[in-house]
Design a protein that fits this description.
Order of helices and strands: HHEEHHEHEHEEEEHEHHEHHEE
CATH class: Alpha Beta
CATH architecture: 3-Layer(aba) Sandwich
Largest sheet: 7 strands, mixed
Number of domains: 1
Strand order of the largest sheet: 5-4-3-9-10-12-11
Strand content: 15-25%
Structural class: alpha/beta
CATH superfamily: Vaccinia Virus protein VP39
Number of helices: 11
Distance between the termini: 50 Å
C-alpha cells in the first residue's frame, strides 16, 4: 500500500490530469482498502479523495463534522453527489439500522465502488440511485473528469480539455422524496453548480420544511460561468425559513420554524 500511496501522491501533481490517469494505469496503481475512524474504504491512491484518506484518515473535515452533529439514530439522509460513498457510510453509521440513506450518484464507473464501500462497512440501509438531480426529469450528458478527481464530474463541462461523456437519467429532488416516501431528511449536496437546478427545481420541499437541514457545497465560479446567480439559491432558502449555521463554516442551512 505504501508504494501505491507514494506514487499516487506524485501522480496528483501531473498535468494535464488525463496524462496522470494514463501514467496511473502504466504504473499499475490499483485501489486498496484503507481503514479510517469512519470506516473502511476501497480507495484510489492516485485520486484526491483516496490520497487524503490515506494520509489523514478523513475527508472534508468541515462537512464531516456538521453531518455528525446533524444526524441522529433513525434519521433519513439523502447524499446528492455521493461520489464513492464516503459521507453515505458516515451517515449510515450515525442513523443506524432504523435510519435510511439514499446515495444519489449518476457515474456508472462509480457504482461498483459504492457497492464495495457499503459492503465493507455493512450498510444495508443504504440505497443507491444512479441518477443526477436537476429541475426536470429526463436525460442529460454527464461530463466525466479524469479519475484523479472524479467528484468534479458534472452536467456542465468544467475542464478546458475535452472529457468523455455518458448519458444518464435525471430526477428532481422532489421525485426522490415522493418515490421513497420521505417525510423528512437531512440532505448533503455537492453537484458542481447543478445545485441551482436541484434546489430551485423543487421549491416545495423547502417551503414545507421536509428538508430539515441542507449541507450545501456551492460553486460560485461555475454558476457564474453558466450565467446564474448564487444569490437566487440563498434567497429561496432564506424565504423558506433556512438560516446558515454559523458553526458550519458556511455549509449548513438549517430550517427554523
Amino acid at each position: 500500500m505504501s508504494y501505491a500511496i507514494t506514487v499516487g501522491r506524485w501522480l496528483l501533481r501531473v498535468r494535464p490530469a488525463p496524462l496522470g490517469t494514463a501514467l496511473k494505469r502504466l504504473l499499475l496503481v490499483r485501489r486498496v482498502e484503507c481503514a479510517t475512524a469512519e470506516g473502511v474504504f476501497w480507495i484510489d491512491p492516485g485520486s484526491y479523495l483516496g490520497s487524503t484518506l490515506a494520509e489523514t484518515g478523513e475527508y472534508e473535515p468541515a462537512t464531516l463534522a456538521i453531518l455528525k452533529s446533524l444526524l441522529r439514530p433513525g434519521d433519513a439522509f439523502v447524499d446528492v453527489g455521493a461520489n464513492e460513498g464516503y459521507f453515505s457510510v458516515v451517515a449510515a453509521r450515525r442513523v443506524g439500522p432504523a435510519g435510511r440513506v439514499i446515495a444519489v450518484e449518476p457515474q456508472t464507473r462509480l457504482q461498483p465502488i459504492l457497492r464495495r464501500n457499503f459492503a465493507l462497512n455493512a450498510c444495508p440501509q443504504v440505497e443507491v440511485m444512479a441518477a443526477a438531480i436537476s429541475d426536470r426529469p429526463g436525460q442529460a450528458e454527464l461530463h466525466l473528469t479524469p479519475d484523479m478527481n472524479n467528484s468534479a464530474s458534472g452536467l456542465a463541462q468544467s475542464t478546458r480539455y475535452r472529457v468523455r461523456t455518458e448519458t444518464i437519467p435525471c430526477l428532481t429532488l422532489e421525485e426522490i422524496f415522493r418515490a421513497r416516501n420521505l417525510s423528512s431528511a437531512v440532505v448533503k449536496m455537492d453537484i458542481e453548480s447543478w445545485e441551482y437546478e436541484a434546489i430551485l427545481g423543487s421549491p416545495e420541499l423547502f417551503r414545507s420544511g421536509r428538508i430539515r437541514a441542507l449541507v450545501l457545497e456551492l460553486h460560485p465560479e461555475l454558476l457564474a460561468a453558466r450565467g446564474l446567480r448564487v444569490e437566487d439559491i440563498a434567497e429561496l432558502l432564506s424565504a423558506c425559513g433556512y438560516r446558515l449555521d454559523p458553526a458550519s463554516t458556511g455549509l449548513a442551512w438549517i430550517r427554523h420554524e
